[in-house]
Design goal:
160 residues, globular, 6 helices, mainly alpha
Length: 160
């Protein structure tokens, strides 16, 4: 059965959330939380969020323009930018956690953001597949693969 437009859109949005989670976890690889304040970590994560959103936006613009063979009108470009914002929920949650953390709680906040990103990978990985065709097997397979990537990133973090 062909996938409905709303299912495709929801799966694409969940994939964007995965992208934001990976961006957050990757940016975290070189960070030792005890060396920074909560506000400096929040600022760095804001830069990562902006870079991820604009990268997603420009990739989608180029993809659509090459598919259609012409530049997108401003209205479509704006809609594409709004869709690219789905990359940002996890980084923005991290920004809030870091910004609101007292200096003594920054390591705990850092751990919380990593844990939330890790959980988001698996849940979004499962849902992005399951919503398309209601296959639990494919959804769980993708969740395991995303959890595996998250575990690899957390393992690399532990080495630093």
């Amino acid at each position: 059965m062909p996938w409905s437009q709303s299912r495709k859109m929801t799966a694409n949005r969940l994939a964007s959330i995965i992208y934001g989670s990976i961006a957050t976890m990757t940016a975290d690889l070189g960070i030792k939380a005890t060396d920074y304040t909560g506000m400096s970590l929040a600022s760095g994560l804001a830069a990562v969020a902006a870079a991820a959103v604009f990268t997603k936006f420009f990739l989608e613009i180029v993809k659509r323009e090459t598919e259609t063979g012409h530049h997108l009108p401003a209205g479509e470009s704006w809609a594409t930018f709004i869709e690219a914002l789905y990359v940002a929920p996890l980084p923005f949650i991290g920004i809030l956690i870091f910004a609101l953390s007292p200096k003594t709680a920054v390591p705990l906040a850092h751990w919380a953001v990593s844990a939330i990103a890790f959980g988001t990978l698996g849940v979004s990985g499962f849902l992005s597949s399951y919503l398309l065709d209601s296959s639990i097997r494919i959804g769980l397979t993708r969740a395991v693969l995303w959890f595996g990537l998250g575990a690899m990133l957390l393992g690399l973090k532990a080495l630093t």
